[in-house]
Q: What sequence folds into this?
């Protein structure tokens, strides 16, 4: 598991819609930015790289549901904008088979898509200053950590974790004071007192080890693939090569 | 995540649900998803889960083969829910929601071949994205055989151990490299085919979807009943 798939029923509707809207905007921008590329080459390249990502996600690396996603590799091979489209397609496919919620498709695409875009950009930047393999490993690690931070930051800042107290003021109490309730209480559930501070610690304790393990595995895998491609077909890495050495 | 099994089952099935047009099944899936999002009690979730499970049972899909597909949503649901209140009803409710939503989507995909669903997707997605989605789907199955062969070679040469995660990864690098190369070569051939067709990126097909038929009554009625009972 090199990224988290937000399942259905976890996030309130407002944020789901926001996720879809933001993903839609970036998708439209990606389609606009890549419109100049040769159309006959753009479509199959995109489909095939998305197919590889999907395949790789089907192969578990061990007994836990840990798999690679190669989003950053897509960013390196396709370029950042096409890579965002590829991650959207992959997430849509995965959502249809229950791997990540269909209602959370926007947010899941945003998190993984930004990882691919940032990875592609970082690789381009780093490849000018260092050999391709460490550039790929560094770009992947940074992009994955930023993606993980985005997930955790999004859930913290927007208070969209369903089991965390959020200041949802929605009524006035008997004594005229505003009553604030948790998101969960707002939806009809009641948490035991004193749980709120423990929640994020527990969430981070669960997510961070998996995320860091994922970043390490993914960075290693992308570096190995880039090392192989740089030896065999360096032209494939040309969008990001920009003077880098393998 | 055995996509080949899903695809095979969706194509080979002959039950009324398989024969129904995608629009009826999409309606049923949407109602189930809406129910999952709105569900606040275990009773509601159980009812929704049972409806999906019974529909899958009637479409003759072996339930035991469904369990690996439901494991991942259950796992991710648990990760998200356990971070909040710890062990308690909400954890299982969130986990139940993730599993029931996954079941309702699997119901759609196990009874509808993706190319048929694609016609409907073309209505809501830009043509380029719909075409790319189709190529992704085709690429997956074209590359699946290559990956199986590569993994077999990799295992036969002692490169894989179910317990050695990092060693697996080290050995997997060149395997993935070969797979990417193979995929990109296929892509180039495909580009030439498109060039021969006049350089158009579009695979055609237009925004036409399958017309509803009498078998649609089954998912439509079930969907309407659920809509009334649950919502």
A:
């Amino acid at each position: 598991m090199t990224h988290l798939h937000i399942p259905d029923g976890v996030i309130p509707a407002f944020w789901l819609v926001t996720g879809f809207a933001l993903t839609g905007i970036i998708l439209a921008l990606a389609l606009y930015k890549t419109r100049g590329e040769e159309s006959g080459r753009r479509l199959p390249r995109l489909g095939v790289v998305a197919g590889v990502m999907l395949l790789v996600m089907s192969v578990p690396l061990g007994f836990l549901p840990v798999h690679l996603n190669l989003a950053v590799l897509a960013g390196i091979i396709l370029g950042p904008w096409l890579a965002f489209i590829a991650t959207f397609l992959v997430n849509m496919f995965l959502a249809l088979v229950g791997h990540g919620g269909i209602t959370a498709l926007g947010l899941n695409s945003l998190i993984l898509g930004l990882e691919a875009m940032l990875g592609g950009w970082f690789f381009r930047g780093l490849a000018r200053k260092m050999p391709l393999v460490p550039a790929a490993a560094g770009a992947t690690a940074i992009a994955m950590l930023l993606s993980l931070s985005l997930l955790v930051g999004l859930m913290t800042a927007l208070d969209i974790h369903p089991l965390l107290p959020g200041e949802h003021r929605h009524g006035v109490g008997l004594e005229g004071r505003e009553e604030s309730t948790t998101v969960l209480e707002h939806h009809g559930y009641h948490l035991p007192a004193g749980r709120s501070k423990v929640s994020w610690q527990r969430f981070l304790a669960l997510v961070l080890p998996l995320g860091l393990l994922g970043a390490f595995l993914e960075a290693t895998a992308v570096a190995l693939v880039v090392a192989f491609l740089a030896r065999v077909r360096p032209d494939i890495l040309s969008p990001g090569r920009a003077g880098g050495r393998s | 995540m055995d996509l080949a099994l899903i695809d095979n089952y969706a194509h080979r099935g002959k039950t009324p649900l398989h024969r129904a047009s995608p629009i009826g099944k999409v309606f049923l899936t949407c109602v189930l998803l809406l129910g999952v999002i709105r569900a606040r009690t275990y009773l509601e979730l159980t009812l929704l889960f049972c409806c999906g499970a019974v529909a899958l049972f009637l479409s003759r899909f072996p339930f035991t083969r469904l369990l690996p597909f439901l494991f991942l949503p259950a796992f991710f649901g648990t990760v998200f829910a356990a971070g909040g209140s710890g062990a308690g009803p909400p954890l299982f409710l969130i986990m139940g929601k993730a599993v029931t939503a996954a079941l309702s989507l699997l119901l759609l995909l196990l009874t509808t071949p993706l190319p048929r669903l694609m016609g409907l997707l073309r209505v809501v997605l830009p043509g380029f994205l719909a075409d790319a989605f189709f190529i992704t789907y085709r690429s997956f199955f074209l590359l699946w055989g290559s990956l199986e062969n590569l993994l077999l070679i990799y295992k036969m040469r002692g490169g894989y151990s179910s317990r050695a995660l990092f060693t697996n990864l080290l050995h997997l690098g060149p395997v993935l490299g070969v797979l990417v190369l193979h995929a990109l070569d296929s892509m180039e051939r495909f580009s030439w085919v498109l060039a021969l067709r006049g350089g158009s990126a579009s695979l055609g097909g237009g925004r036409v979807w399958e017309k509803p038929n009498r078998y649609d009554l089954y998912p439509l009625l079930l969907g309407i009943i659920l809509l009334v009972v649950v919502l």
Q: What stands out?
A: The CA atoms of residues 210 and 216 of chain A lie 10 Å apart.
